[in-house]
Design a protein that fits this description.
- This protein is an alpha/beta fold and about 240 residues long.
- It has nine helices and nine strands.
- Helix 6 crosses helix 8.
- The N terminus is likely disordered.
- It binds adenosine monophosphate (AMP).
- The site of adenosine monophosphate has 11 residues, from helix 3.
């Protein structure tokens, strides 16, 4: 099933429309703000709840309310969400929780979050640091144009295995080509602002990175728009989203 979410805020009302494309079912519902979930209802680990509290989040945003239960359930997800909707925490929170609670291999990178720009990579890494502060989940940001010794630091983390790698496509591909990046046990892939990555010409890099990953993984795609090339990417790489 292919689901696309769009959110529009009208005062205290949220107009939520989801388009179920293969069957062309379009449904629209108006939700009141008071249906938004308290974070306690997701069943997150206590140490993660402390990070959520420390970040000052009280209620889940609509995109978090919709997407978090699906990710917790192990589903592949494609969601249309703009910056400012809380989409970053919508994928970081369930990923951090899964890494805390589910068994996973040591000495491998567990989750890969691919983003279009270094600015976005830095921003997501800061979110990650805040939310995972009270957990032992490790993360690293890998992006182009960094300072001189960044490559050495990145190489060390990628060859040892970080829990969450937040990267831009070109820089990540450069590391993968060198052969030391541990991807054998990778379980989660996130493509954030996927339409922007395609606009910026990263299609080939993304395809090559995906080819280097285990097939048995959970894939999440976030995109503001859904052009045909995006649909191809989703069809080829998502499993029953
Ligand atoms: P994003 O759409 O991911 O770029 O997030 C936009 C901003 O909303 C960021 O500054 C987040 O820290 C903040 N944010 C995300 N989720 C919540 C929440 N549930 N409650 C309050 N602020 C949030």
């Amino acid at each position: 099933t292919f689901i696309m979410f769009r959110y529009y805020w009208y005062g205290s009302k949220i107009l939520y429309s989801a388009i179920n494309s293969p069957k062309s079912i379009i449904f629209t519902a108006i939700l009141n703000k008071d249906v938004i979930l308290n974070f306690k209802e997701f069943g997150f680990a206590e140490r993660l709840m402390e990070g959520i509290d420390a970040s000052g989040y009280e209620e889940a945003t609509p995109v978090q309310e919709q997407v978090i239960p699906l990710i917790m359930d192990g589903k592949d997800v494609i969601a249309s969400a703009q910056t400012g909707t809380g989409k970053t925490a919508a994928f970081l929170l369930p990923l951090i929780n899964k890494i805390i609670t589910d068994p996973h291999e040591d000495h491998t990178n567990n989750a890969l979050v691919i983003v279009p720009t270094r600015e976005l990579a830095i921003q997501i890494a800061q979110h990650m640091e805040g939310l995972s502060y009270f957990t032992s989940v490790s993360s690293i940001a890998v992006y182009g144009g960094g300072y001189g010794n960044a490559f050495v630091k990145e190489k060390k983390a990628l060859s040892h295995g970080a829990d969450v790698v937040i990267c831009t496509p070109g820089k990540m591909m450069a590391h993968i080509k060198m052969g030391y990046v541990k991807l054998g046990g990778l379980k989660y892939l996130v493509l954030d602002e996927a339409d922007r990555m395609l606009d910026m010409g990263f299609y080939d890099d993304i395809k090559k990175i995906i080819e280097a990953l285990p097939k048995n993984r959970q894939t999440l795609m976030f995109s503001a728009t859904m052009p045909p090339k995006m649909r191809d990417l989703a069809r080829q790489n998502l499993n029953n989203p």
